[in-house]
């Protein structure tokens, strides 16, 4: 059996659910609740390199599966951009 990306599959099912098949709303909603992603960032925490920190955690059925805290590779100019980079990195980790 080949590996199917979880986030991509859920996204496709949500599209189908919202636009064509309203009868699968409950099932897709339950599956979507199983895997949860939390992210946070600290803006330019390292004053010398001006790099921010990204923190992320994934839970499956309420239990922590993956967690990490890393220094972002790029220099960002705002807290919003730091949060965006943290979210993108966490999404890559999930897939």
From TrEMBL:
<feature type="transmembrane region" description="Helical">
    <location>
        <begin position="12"/>
        <end position="35"/>
    </location>
</feature>
<protein>
    <submittedName>
        <fullName>Gag/pol protein</fullName>
    </submittedName>
</protein>
<keyword id="KW-0472">Membrane</keyword>
<keyword id="KW-0812">Transmembrane</keyword>
<keyword id="KW-1133">Transmembrane helix</keyword>
């Amino acid at each position: 059996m080949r590996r199917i990306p979880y986030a991509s599959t859920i996204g496709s099912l949500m599209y189908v659910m919202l636009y064509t098949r309203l009868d699968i709303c409950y099932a897709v909603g339950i599956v979507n609740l199983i895997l949860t992603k939390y992210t946070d960032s600290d803006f330019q925490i390292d004053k010398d390199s001006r790099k921010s920190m990204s923190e992320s955690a994934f839970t499956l059925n309420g239990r922590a599966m993956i967690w990490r805290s890393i220094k972002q590779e790029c220099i960002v100019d705002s807290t919003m951009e730091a949060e965006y980079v943290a979210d993108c990195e966490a999404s890559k980790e999930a897939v």
